[in-house]
Amino acid sequence: MTAAGFPQAKAMPDASLTSGQVPDARSEAFAVAEYTCGVEYPMAAKYQTAFNESQLEWLYRYSTGELTKCLQDHDISVERGPSEQEFVDSDGAWSPYRSVDLPQSRYYELVTACPEIPDSIYG
Predict the structure, then answer these.
(1) Contact by Cβ (8 Å): 82, 90
(2) Which of 10, 28, 84, 110 is 20 to 30 Å from 68 at the Cα level?
(3) pTM of structure
(4) In angstroms, rounded to a whole number, what is the distance separating the alpha carbons of residues 45 and 66?
């Protein structure tokens, strides 16, 4: 993105891209640069595949256990989540982060310390 003229764009800990304000006159060039970056550095297929039932069950235990404790250790109050079956039936739609209203910078700090979906889920 820097080489394409967008040095302010950067990858964030949650795999999103932040770009700040892009002037309307540069929006098409930004879209092309973002597309090109995605083609040159594609997201691994494992991150684009839906979780199977055993992964969802593991993620539920992680989210209601280790992740919730990590957030509480960082003074974040977490609401009780759904039952495991509801979580699995929703394809993992719930996360302890959904019940927390945080500024973006605090979210990135927390998601680094307390990953929403740890890489170990992919085996």
Answers:
(1) yes
(2) 10
(3) 0.74
(4) 26
